[in-house]
Amino acid sequence: MTETTMTYQVSGEDNPKTIVFVHGWPDSGAMWVQQVRDLESDYRCVCVTLPNFGASPDKSGGYRFAQLVEMLRDTIKQAQPSGEPVYLVTHDWGAYIGYLLEAKHPELVQKMVAMDVGGHSQPSGIKEALMIVGYQWTLIAGWILGGIIPPLGTALSRGLGRVLDLSPERAAGIRSYFNYPYFHLWMDLLLPWRRKNLLGRYNPRCPVLYIYGADKPVMFHSKRWFQTVEETEGRVEVVPDGGHWFMESHPEQINELIREWFPAPAVLEGP
Q1: CATH code assigned to 7-125+197-261
Q2: pTM, entire model
Q3: 242-248, long-range: CB < 8 A, 24+ apart
Q4: Percent of the chain beyond pLDDT 70?
Q5: Which positions of the chain have pLDDT values less than 50?
């Protein structure tokens, strides 16, 4: 990682088509291992790790979304030797950042697969809204506390991870400084002079395959988002028994959908 790029790993370097994978909270580029293992024979796979999601924080206070978008832009330009638009696969916060990137730099993205967080979200009712506000502000509290007493902030964040039924391994890897996207999102929502930084009424200019898991208490999309996807030559797929990390629990299904959405170049056989 440099001051203007993110840390990334490349597999299948000699393949002509590039897929850039962007994770969310509380993960790293390593979460895509089952996708890379299957796809690296046909695609150049670039797995990005968002800044401040490593073993130690890169910057106190984290990064605003505008900074993350420009860092992702520079990372794609550095990691894509041909200069052609890339295929983008995103999850959770990675999806939100991917939408912001495509909105500002549409020339960089040919097609997108976005997982579990839509370009527009609307709670289905008061209970779901309270659940979203509750867990997000708990993570913000953990982030703030972690800036003062890091072990306590991390303990609070990991405790919430266990409440959210994260696997023991995933919960144990949480650090309080991972939580900064939640803080900056709410600052963008609450402070009038920062609202221009929000995604707003996002209409993708590239086709988007949106995949979500139905087996969880809170959804991060809306009917409007489904309609927007379909109106822009995209598609919506659901994993009925999938939770938030269905790319890990249902890798064969997800890898097949990715292959269908991003056709690999045909291999020409000799005479």
Answers
A1: 3.40.50.1820
A2: 0.95
A3: 242/212, 242/213, 242/214, 242/215, 243/213, 243/215, 243/216, 244/92, 244/116, 244/213, 244/216, 245/31, 246/115, 246/116, 246/211, 246/213, 247/31, 247/32, 247/34, 247/35, 247/91, 247/115, 248/31, 248/34
A4: 96
A5: 267-271
